[in-house]
Amino acid sequence: MSTHSVLIEGQWTSSTGAKTFQALNPATREALPDLFPVSPWDEVERAVRAASAAFWRVRGWPGDRFAAFLDRYATNIEARAAELVAMAHAETALPVEPRLAKAELPRTTNQLRQAATAARDGSWLRPIIDSAANIRSVFAPIGPVVVFGPNNFPFAFNGISGGDFAAAVAAGCPVIAKGHSSHPGTTRLFAEAAHEAARDTDMPPGFVQLIYRTSHEDGEKLVSHPLIGACGYTGARATGLVLKAAADRVGKPIYLELSSINPIFVLPAAIAERGEKIAEELAGSCLMGTGQFCTSPGLIVLLAGSQTDAFVESLRKRFDAAPVGTLLGEGVLTHLEHGIATLRSTGAEVIAGGTSGGGAGFSHRNTLLRVSGDRFLAHAEALQTETFGNSSLIVVADNSDQMSQIAESLEGNLTGCLYSDTAGQDNALYEQIEPALRQRVGRLLNDKMPTGVAVSAAMNHGGPFPATGHPGFTAVGMPTSIQRFAMLQCYDNVSRPDRLPPSLRDKNPNGKLWRLVNGTWTQSDVV
Amino acid sequence: MSTHSVLIEGQWTSSTGAKTFQALNPATREALPDLFPVSPWDEVERAVRAASAAFWRVRGWPGDRFAAFLDRYATNIEARAAELVAMAHAETALPVEPRLAKAELPRTTNQLRQAATAARDGSWLRPIIDSAANIRSVFAPIGPVVVFGPNNFPFAFNGISGGDFAAAVAAGCPVIAKGHSSHPGTTRLFAEAAHEAARDTDMPPGFVQLIYRTSHEDGEKLVSHPLIGACGYTGARATGLVLKAAADRVGKPIYLELSSINPIFVLPAAIAERGEKIAEELAGSCLMGTGQFCTSPGLIVLLAGSQTDAFVESLRKRFDAAPVGTLLGEGVLTHLEHGIATLRSTGAEVIAGGTSGGGAGFSHRNTLLRVSGDRFLAHAEALQTETFGNSSLIVVADNSDQMSQIAESLEGNLTGCLYSDTAGQDNALYEQIEPALRQRVGRLLNDKMPTGVAVSAAMNHGGPFPATGHPGFTAVGMPTSIQRFAMLQCYDNVSRPDRLPPSLRDKNPNGKLWRLVNGTWTQSDVV
Asked: What count of other Cβ atoms lies within 10 Å of the Cβ of residue B306?
């Protein structure tokens, strides 16, 4: 069977590489038939040059042009929904319904359309005008962007259709997508839909490109290439840190989403008030998508007590009783086994599951571990090892001070949750723990599980290292996520209006753009 | 004579270090009498712990508290103006008037007061509220900040009084200032004024601290310390890159201002129209402060022609005729000599100056070099070596395409200027060059020299690497520069108002804060 083509410079092109790979069906462990190429460096660099050429062609285009592409692309995806869902199901074993068809696909097209709206309204530009000094600043596209998609959201975070892709395009940046090797067929279908949308909306060749795989060395060269503006990477921490080091050495912004154990603090009066309800929510959140969410709760912190023991027992039963899902691939299973082994070797005790198997294909029994607060504090780094998949660690603190110390010992995370009672008995403990937790997470939740990441302007899907590489940016939420692919450009004493971008001219380009003019946010013209 | 104390945890304390250093008077090359300590690691770490303790005490304080400190500090500086100016003059040889007394000192207090205003009005917080989903985000202080000040602005960029200091404090972050070794006495006077202001405005011990010097190794440990939130560094590229690598390894934001040659493109019709006027401006800008500005024009790009030869000759005469200033220190002189040697060895020809001496103390003759466009393109990296000081390189391009290629070969810079004629003859060439230059600089100027950096909300004192470490941030201009010391914090389903920061509660805290509520910027309450 022939090897699939890569999408470079507006053409589906046979790869010049000799190496190929196949995806596996995780539910059967069998190789899927299609062959995909590993692109050699000359091919990667051809994509970089084409992206750069595309950037210079689209630079200065009004946001409408990028919006038109994004909207058309969303429509094209919907037209191929059945095919995409079937392929993603085969490649990831994620359920067709509701997950792929009813949740992730609509989320993906919704994200693309929100990006289109942001591109059109220019809300990410944040123009600032000082008319007396005639100094004007605005955000502008940073240049070609490389997006590395993860394994766990074949649609919503795919390198060629997900949040990073949408944000980069909304900023006016061409994208080179590096598909994840576990779902190349899904990525290919998206690339076809994107390619057609690009053609139909007159985007230049090289605006959207796809390579499936490179060597690790070429990945490092790619993220540090002089013609690349920035990168987005969502995936495993080890690989991400290698790419980060390469990009950092040459001062290229790289936005990472690396790992997060999403601590959940369930305070004692909340357990007394509604322990069963919380246990149900918590088990559901931990096992949703077989625990393969960036925001899956991997760490549950409780205060010792008899009601806590009952709560743990309720959780244990739910983990035991829940069906065992199929993991995304062999790598996830191996990584999960290693993670659990690390936790065990540091003193965590398995109270549910603990061994591989139990479901179809690549699977691992739903696993709960437990460790004391003392032990956690003594081995805080090892006991924060991410067990990506259906495994969570319960830490039982002896007292409130220890619970607070546990919060202080946490690494950076995407999310942190506090469950407290409604009558206010937990308030003092909440106030003791919240500051340390707040400073260590991007999103702090109350009485709500973190696994839902709403596509909202107010969302922060980010957080301190090692959750991400910089705590000032979010990967989800328009227009803020667009900022990652922008650079600040100031015009000083540029008096001829045609030498300024429309957003900085005295006349508000559409009467609707919010601009900070002489210290006041306004939609008015400069007078 | 005794060694000066360090300011740690709210006390002037004898350093535990055995090593000391002295500043030199650059005009006489003689050591100044005062001894300053090199702090050992235990002392540095004590400052880090005190800063962390201070952070937890001030976290959540209203901006008014930080504003009160900043305003008081500005007043205290004015009360010590004569002393500060005399000390800085002795340590830097910068002229008392207008530079130190009439320009830099007022700029410094103005910056501190603008930071106070921004702290008070909360304009950097950028609250975003999605009331239907009950998701709310706001920027919050990132934690203790270390500021490394440079040698060239003993007031306006000093680690304990300059732009980074002001921005970090406005965000609510304690600062550990690492004074520059060339002007420790000036830094000490600022620290006294800051210490008094902190005491008078009830800031906790450890909110403002000063160490004068550490080993390089301890500098790396400092910027990567787990209790540090972020760093600001302005200074030499080599040192900055070492600190950047250390901070990057552990995902700590570090904001750098490293080097910039600030290219000036003077287009031919502008030379024909007003060559003498431009030559005067340009020579003035190049030699201002003996060329020791971050934004000093180090590269002048011209198009070959007889009027260009006359322009170069006019520049040459002005460089020859201008008085030779004193450099900030021996290191600057050595660095300048090495830079000029690199340019010469790559084919640049000295047309004015070229040798050390000519002024008082550490000095170097005002130096102009010239190289062809061909040669520049063949050795673009070496010929972009920064010659920090009173030396600039003229590149004469053969034709407009080559001029454009020169723009495309530039590294990232803080600024780039285009001079063009008023009648429009240069327009086509402007349009050819501007895009490449625009994408490589933080601030693009028309018909204006870059050496003035207005403290304006619209200013961008930043730019692509290696000018800085990230092109999305500015070091000058409130409130945008504050963003560097902030992290994005989202509150999801946090329904009790007292668990939200005031900026995110339904009620606008002062009726004046601009917030993005359900997609619209407004000063109204959430209804």
From this structure: 7
A294 is catalytic: yes
Please enumerate in sequence order all residues whose Cβ is within 8 A of that of A28, keeping only pairs 6 or more positions apart, or say none: A360, A361
Tokens of A491: 């015009």
Query: Treating both helix axes as pointing N-terminal to C-terminal, what angle do A63-79 and A105-121 enclose, rounded to 10 degrees?
Result: 160
- The angle that helices B105-121 and B163-171 make with each other, rounded to 10 degrees, is 20
The C-alpha atoms of residue A230 and residue A317 are separated, in whole angstroms, by 46
State which residue of chain A sits closest to B136, comparing Cα positions: A458
CB B28 within 8 A of CB B117: no
Residue B1 has what pLDDT?
66
Q: What's the number of CA atoms in the CB half-sphere (13 Å) around residue A450?
A: 34
**What are the chain B neighbours of A171 within 8 Å (beta carbons)?**
none
- Give SS3 for B420: coil
Mean pLDDT score, B36-57: 98
Active site residue B220: no
pTM for this predicted structure: 0.97
DSSP for A106-123, please give it.
Answer: HHHHHHHHHHHHHHHHTT
- Within 10 angstroms of residue A398's Cβ, the number of other Cβ atoms is 12
Ordered by where they begin, the domains of chain A are 6-21+29-258+473-481 (3.40.605.10), 264-446 (3.40.309.10)
Listing DSSP states for A279-290 in one string gives HHHHHHHHHGGG
Q: Does A445 touch chain B (CB under 8 A)?
A: yes
Give the separation between CA A319 and CA A314, rounded to whole angstroms.
9
For residue A255, list its beta bridge partners: A232
Distant-in-sequence, close-in-space partners of A48: CB < 8 Å, separation ≥ 6: A144, A176, A222, A225, A227, A228
pLDDT digits over B307-354, tens only? Answer: 999 999 999 999 999 999 999 999 999 999 999 999 999 999 999 999
ipTM for the complex? 0.97
